[in-house]
Amino acid sequence: MSDDALELLALDWAQDIREQPLPQGMLGCWDDTNGIIYLSSRLSPVQRRCVLAHEISHARHHDLGCHTDAWVERRADMDAAKILVSPIEYATLEQINDDPAWIARESDLLTWVINAYRDLLHDRAA
């Protein structure tokens, strides 16, 4: 998905996307009360795409707060993977090298997105 398409998708669920300095260790946050996705202004383009896709999930589900439980965070990671990972590209790359960090670099994604995609594949097969 292109960055422009990802932005449009985010704006289907959020009123605004704001980039600003966030507290140490926080890359993004969904403010359900105001309908705003906050992204750290210190993110690289790849980090920004992945974090935005993750925050879109929180917006879609109207999750409350910036720190939710492990289940909600896992769901957000898996939703981000559904948005960002091309199944054909993933399958092709996995045939070449099954290292998730390598696949992530080749796909311009973060490793956690590839790991979440693998979890999705595992859950579907189970």
Describe this structure in words.
- InterPro entries: IrrE_HExxH.
- This is IrrE N-terminal-like domain-containing protein.
- Residues 29-70 form the IrrE N-terminal-like domain.
- This protein is mostly helical and 126 residues long.
- The chain has a single domain (3-125), classed as Zincin-like (2-Layer Sandwich), CATH 3.30.2010.
- The protein has 6 helices and 3 strands.
- It has helices at 3-13, 45-60, 70-84, 87-96, 100-107, 111-125; strands at residues 16-20, 28-31, 36-40.
- It has a 3-stranded mixed β-sheet with strand order 1-3-2.
- Helix 2 (45-60) crosses helix 3, helix 3 (70-84) packs across helix 6 and helix 5 crosses helix 6 (111-125).
- It is globular, with a radius of gyration of 14 Å.
- The protein starts with a helix and ends with a helix.
- The model has no long low-confidence stretch (mean pLDDT 95).
Could you outline the blueprint of secondary structure elements for this entry?
Layout (H helix, E strand, L loop, with lengths): L2 H11 L2 E5 L7 E4 L4 E5 L4 H16 L9 H15 L2 H10 L3 H8 L3 H15 L1
Parallel strand pairs: 1-3
Antiparallel strand pairs: 2-3
Helix pairs in contact: 1-2, 2-3, 3-6, 4-5, 5-6
InterPro entries: IrrE_HExxH
Organism: Bifidobacterium samirii
Protein name: IrrE N-terminal-like domain-containing protein
User: What is the number of helices?
Assistant: 6
Shape: globular
Number of strands: 3
**Separation, N- and C-terminal Cα atoms:** 28 Å
- Note the beta-strand portion: 5-15%
Q: How would you spell out the order of helices and strands?
A: HEEEHHHHH
